[in-house]
Amino acid sequence: MSDHAVGPAVTRSRLGTAAGVLAVGTDLLYLGIIAVQEPVDWPTVIFFATTIFLAGAAAGVASTPDLTLAMRLLLFAAAAGGLLCLGIIGVFSIGLPLLVAGTLCAIAWQGAWAAGDPTGARAWVPSLVAFGAAALLPLGGAIAL
Fold it and tell me: 35-56, pLDDT tens digit by residue?
């Protein structure tokens, strides 16, 4: 039974790691493309580049084995919400890889949920709040900037 329980968690962690690498790689590509353009709205670029990086970092950190289930669920939910929203905002430029990364985070969240424990850490409300807050951040930035 132990091998069966470890298998899905390792697979889901790989999905989260892949999402983080894809998000950070896309962020670097975004910055590289922007750096050769003129004129550049640097406050907007810095905001979105930082938001993409933070979502990718959350996915990567959520993939580490040392976290509690509750923290893993929160980080995967936040990463999924942020990356999916960023993917929709940037759908005509860098959005597609961000949508893929957000989808990978959502799948990783589901895997962590399914491998959960009976102590009550699987409550869905904190994950929903994390998802929504992380999705509202880039949306608010797109409106404000």
Answer: 999 899 999 999 999 999 999 9
- The answer to whether 59 and 78 have CB atoms below 8 angstroms apart is no
Query: Alpha-carbon distance 84 to 70, whole Å?
Result: 21
pTM check: above 0.85 = yes
Residues 66, 33 contacting (CB under 8 angstroms): no
Q: What is the pLDDT of residues 71-87, one digit of tens each?
A: 999 999 999 999 999 99
Question: CA-CA distance, 24 to 58, in Å (whole number)?
Answer: 11
Nearest to 47 by CA among 27, 33, 61: 27
The angle formed by the CA atoms of residues 55, 57 and 62, to the nearest 5 degrees, is 95
- CA torsion through residues 123, 78, 105, 63, sign: negative
